[in-house]
């Protein structure tokens, strides 16, 4: 397609902007550009067609099956957007006096009450802007807790090898060293290796449960107790809360802090670098270390309070309010019965799809799985030369988004599939049919798959070159 600059014609314009309704500001001469700003000159129809064409090149949940493992790419109900767009919510400003935004603070407190019930925590802050930001916040609270107890020798965070990559990165940002624990052949944490790794320098454990490979840790209570006995704290990565919400709570498993990926579990849009939300829940022992601006009800009004030993603010103002409204709407819509039903349906869909493919594809771990399962195409690659990437490209030709590739790193030629609870049996059956046909094609005509996709807007791209030599600006001929 043409870039918007390539659509440009000198002198062409449109009148989409309203009349100026604020005082005109004259830029001082010393701040003016020395060269005229080169903007595309296009008509209103051209602008509309340009963005429509761009939209048609993307693939989202509204376009088809989107089983991106460990990311829970589920449907976002439109009622969420309608509630976030109510004038009383959409029209507020973060600098308004607290007494003028009492409804917004009530949203935060209501969301806190429901999410602490779901997670088994005592308090929650909505200040972190995303999941990894929540990790960072939690680890800052860990560090403050140990410092307050004059236990500064604790400088190590234990992380299983199947963890999300952000876990060791977050630990490093806080100044902690990461101790990696290898998984057993069945994909679960090696409890004896964990026991041998803990000591007086253990600050805490970062664990995702169900794990990144879609398995529930059968020894979870023993795992968290080992850390507590060593004087450390337990952090629950909430990336995979979707299959257990309303069924079992991280707080009851022995975790002291949990972050929630609101965009994964509670149906708000994936930010893509934009408006995410990664609220942190904590137990009573960590309340004093929470970030600033914790809302509480004092007599007949909501106010912001500052915890006694706060780590300070981790973000400007108090989180992304519109995202919390959407999540709260989702929780209230599903209710006490709907939340666990969504979780059990997620587990059902994943196990059904895995069972329908297990006679052909090699499953890395024995079932049952939780919300996702991991296939290894290592045998297929050896026998046909077809890789996980080739299979993923073939899936694109079927009008479906491919699953996560080459993750987790502990599985060679991995494809990680997460159907989510919002997909129908008919959709999953169609996906199973496509996967099975691709498997047969790998053995009957491997060269065909190595050149896929054939029916997308563009053919196979050079991912390495795109990542290392991206073209990010338009080069004018003159």
Q: What features would you describe in this structure?
A:
The chain has 478 residues and is of the alpha/beta class. The protein folds into three domains: 4-56, no CATH class; 78-332, Type I PLP-dependent aspartate aminotransferase-like (Major domain) (Aspartate Aminotransferase, domain 2); 339-466, Aspartate Aminotransferase, domain 1 (Alpha-Beta Complex), CATH 3.90.1150.10. The protein has 17 helices and 13 strands. Strands 1-7-6-5-4-2-3 form a seven-stranded mixed β-sheet, sandwiched between helices. Strand 4, helix 9 and strand 5 (233-238) form a beta-alpha-beta unit. The longest helix has 37 residues, at 321-357.
Question: What keywords describe this structure?
Answer:
globular, 478 residues, four-stranded antiparallel β-sheet, alpha/beta, single chain, 17 helices, 12% strand, 3 domains, Aspartate Aminotransferase, domain 2, Aspartate Aminotransferase, domain 1
What is this structure, in a nutshell?
The chain is of the alpha/beta class and 478 residues long.
Averaged pLDDT: 94
Low-confidence stretches: none
Q: Give me the number of helical elements.
A: 17
Order of helices and strands, N to C? HHHHHEHEHEHEHEHEHEEEHEEHHEEHHH
Q: If strands are numbered along the chain, what order do they take across the biggest sheet?
A: 1-7-6-5-4-2-3
Q: What overall geometry do the principal axes of the alpha carbons give?
A: globular
> Do you know the CATH architecture of the largest domain?
3-Layer(aba) Sandwich
The helical percent reads: 25-40%
How does the major sheet shape up?
7 strands, mixed
How many domains make up the coordinates? 3
């Amino acid at each position: 397609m043409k870039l918007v600059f390539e659509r440009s014609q000198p002198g062409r314009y449109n009148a989409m902007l309203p009349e100026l309704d604020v005082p005109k500001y004259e830029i001082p001469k010393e701040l003016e550009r020395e060269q005229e700003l080169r903007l595309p000159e296009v008509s209103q129809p051209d602008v509309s067609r340009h963005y429509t064409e761009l939209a048609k090149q993307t693939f989202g949940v509204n376009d088809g099956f989107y089983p991106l493992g460990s990311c829970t790419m589920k449907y976002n109900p439109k009622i969420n957007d309608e509630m976030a767009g109510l004038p009383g919510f959409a029209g507020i400003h973060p600098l308004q006096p607290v007494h003028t935004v009492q409804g917004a603070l009530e949203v935060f407190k209501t969301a806190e009450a429901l999410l602490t019930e779901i997670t088994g925590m005592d308090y929650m802050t909505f200040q972190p802007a995303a999941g990894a930001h929540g990790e960072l916040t939690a680890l800052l609270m860990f560090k403050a807790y140990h410092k307050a107890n004059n236990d500064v020798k604790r400088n190590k965070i234990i992380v299983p090898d199947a963890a999300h990559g952000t876990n060791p990165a977050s630990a490093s940002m806080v100044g902690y060293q990461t101790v990696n624990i290898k998984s057993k052949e069945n994909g679960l944490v090696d409890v004896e290796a964990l026991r041998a790794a803990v000591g007086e320098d253990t600050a805490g454990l970062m664990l995702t449960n169900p794990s990144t490979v879609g398995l529930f840790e059968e020894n979870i209570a023993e795992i968290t107790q080992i850390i507590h006995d060593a004087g450390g704290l337990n952090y629950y990565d909430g990336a995979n809360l979707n299959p257990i919400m309303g069924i079992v709570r991280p707080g009851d498993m022995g975790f002291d802090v949990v972050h929630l990926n609101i965009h994964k579990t509670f149906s708000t849009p994936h930010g893509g670098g934009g408006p995410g939300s990664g609220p942190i829940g904590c137990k009573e022992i960590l309340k004093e270390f929470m970030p600033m601006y914790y809302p509480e009800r004092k007599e007949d009004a909501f106010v912001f309070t500052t915890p006694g030993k706060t780590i300070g603010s981790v973000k400007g103002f108090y989180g992304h309010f519109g995202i919390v409204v959407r999540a709260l709407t989702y929780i209230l819509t599903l209710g006490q019965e709907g939340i666990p039903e969504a979780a059990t349906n997620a587990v059902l869909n994943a196990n059904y799809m895995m069972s329908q493919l297990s006679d052909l594809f090699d499953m890395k771990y024995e079932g049952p799985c939780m919300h996702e399962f991991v296939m290894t195409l290592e045998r297929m690659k050896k026998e046909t030369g077809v890789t996980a990437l080739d299979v993923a490209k073939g899936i694109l030709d079927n009008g479906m988004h491919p699953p996560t590739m080459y993750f987790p790193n502990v599985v060679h030629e991995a494809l990680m599939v997460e159907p989510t609870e919002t997909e129908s049996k008919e959709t999953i059956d169609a996906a199973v049919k496509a996967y099975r046909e691709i498997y047969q094609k790998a053995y009957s005509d491997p060269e065909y798959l190595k050149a896929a996709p054939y029916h997308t807007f563009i053919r196979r791209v050079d991912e390495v070159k795109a990542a290392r030599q991206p073209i990010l600006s338009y080069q004018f001929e003159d």
